[in-house]
């Protein structure tokens, strides 16, 4: 079979001095950092949707993407050919994982029955390619936002038939994910929210979403799927407000509906930005709840108010991300998933390689910087020193719930006032980080 990327060799590590755009400068998969290889720390994944089905259109113009393997038809044959191209890309890039929506890999038919049959034909090729290359499925998901049937939402739709269709679609997507050995399954509420509360029964919609996810948990158990469930927060776009708006909102929802034992969060930088947060904030919020499972590797343009899904190039960003991952002991599920797309002007197939190579190098640098900062120890020492008063007998009693207001009043009356506080030294700490960038 002819190659889809005949001019691209397998991407190899060339080192920091390499000028070859088709070599890694920093990502050396077998290099050991903090006790594990880069491959095992980063667990890179390529997304099917942005990489192989995104035409690079925008509200002001049609798609520009040149994809020689794709004839633009909605046929099974075209979808199967796209699979072969995708796995050649994964193999040459050297990533261990990929991720997909059901509608990325296979088009819809005239009915759910026909759609499922089409998906089965494509899954057969996906399975063949996974076995041939060793590339694995990080997680699967269902597209519950593109079809007009979901214009009012899916699990939160005011129309029962849309809810039921979504349930049937997720059921099939979960079965396919299990068949392909997927290590997880993600729920992203692309239209689970509202544009106006004038036509929205918010409580009822949230109750329906909770019920939907409980049914998913029940079905997961019934088919023996042991992969991790994820929820991916996003605050807006296309709705004015989405119910999974940020990490804290998702955690509150999961607690309210008794689902926290069944879900972790898949966090994305661009979504954090739209929510008015830094990615590090979202990550430490999830980690504090024991609920960080995976991350989507991208970034947004701070001057644009929408989800631009650009490839990550900021080493500050990747060092913060990997510092959080190292602090929590590394990934036990999930990985670094490139939910990112090339720019509309970067329309040639070779640009897909340039973009992913750059993103992988940025995260490799971030990993090495995060490890160096941890070994240096000054940041952690400062943090321990800043909170040292809480390591006193009284501090431990407060944290253990063994004292109350009356005891604390007695303590302060004896002291008379609060002693002068110490500087937070933000600038000093930022200078320390800059030493390693």
TrEMBL record:
Subunit structure: Homotetramer.
Cofactor(s) listed in the protein's UniProt record: Mg(2+)
Binding positions (Mg(2+) 2): 268, 271, 307, 309
The organism's place on the tree of life at top rank: Bacteria
Name of this protein: Xylose isomerase
Any one GO biological process: D-xylose metabolic process
Localization (cell): Cytoplasm
